[in-house]
Amino acid sequence: MMNKEQYIKLVMKKLGCTKKEKEKIKVDLNNDIEMALKNGETFEDIMKRMGTPEELAQEFNDNLGVVYKKSHKKLIIGIIIGVVAVIIAIVLYIHSLIPDINPLGTSGLYQESEVHQWNVEAIGYLNQNDYDSLHQMLSPNLRDRLDDILKAKNDLGELGNFEKITSEQSVEAKQKGELLAASEVVALYEKRSVTYTISFNESGQMVGIYMK
């Protein structure tokens, strides 16, 4: 079984921040674990609460606004999840609905600046609790699922104030004969980051959203 030193070492290995920030995180993490151990927690319980080294390092990277280039494979997987899962509560057979992915702008129907603005507006409406404007932005099929979207947002917990978008990647995805613009957007808040996967039709109506 992994011990404390091995756990911290693996977390440090996955961090993308500066050496100075790594040292601070290392000291704080060691102190947190030592305090928990003194309070009666087992190291196994601590790991379950904090997550795997990879998960904890990812959380630190997101909170620090570390921007890193994702592999094309990971981007496609993220976009497929967002397009296929039109709304979180609906389970679909992914193998029969895999979309055809192409770079944004391939068809001439979508412009990067236009899709970026749609993403900013959608996330802004969620941040401001402007649900009337968000409702107007949704496609007719998705408007009936507004309550599910709001529940998914509430399930994220307390985020704090929105700070900035740290990364944004968009593609065109042909789904059931309809060409969509699909984006993966990482937004940084005071307490954590949120990854939004959002898809729009050519009219600028949101047809899918997934947040984690």
Topology readout:
Elements: H1 4-14, H2 19-38, H3 43-50, H4 53-63, H5 72-84, E1 100-103, H6 112-127, H7 131-137, H8 140-143, H9 146-154, E2 162-175, E3 178-189, E4 193-200, E5 206-211
Antiparallel strand pairs: 1-2, 2-3, 3-4, 4-5
Tags for this model:
212 residues, alpha+beta, 5 strands
**Unreliable stretches:** 91-96
Tally of DSSP β-strands? 5
Instruction: Tell me the Rg in angstroms.
Output: 19 Å
State the end-to-end distance.
29 Å
Oligomeric state as shown = single chain
Strand content: 15-25%
Query: What about the largest sheet?
Result: 5 strands, antiparallel
Would you tell me the structural class of the helices and strands? Answer: alpha+beta
The number of helical runs is 9
Q: What characteristic shape results from the CA principal axes?
A: elongated
What strand order characterises the main sheet? 1-2-3-4-5
Write a concise synopsis of the structure shown.
This protein has 212 residues and is an alpha+beta fold.
How would you sum up this structure, described in words?
- With 212 residues, this protein is of the alpha+beta class.
- It is built from nine helices and five strands; from the N terminus they run αααααβααααββββ.
- Strands 1-2-3-4-5 form a five-stranded antiparallel β-sheet, sandwiched between helices.
- A hairpin with a 5-residue loop joins β4 (193-200) and β5 (206-211).
- α6 runs antiparallel to α7.
- The two termini are 29 Å apart.
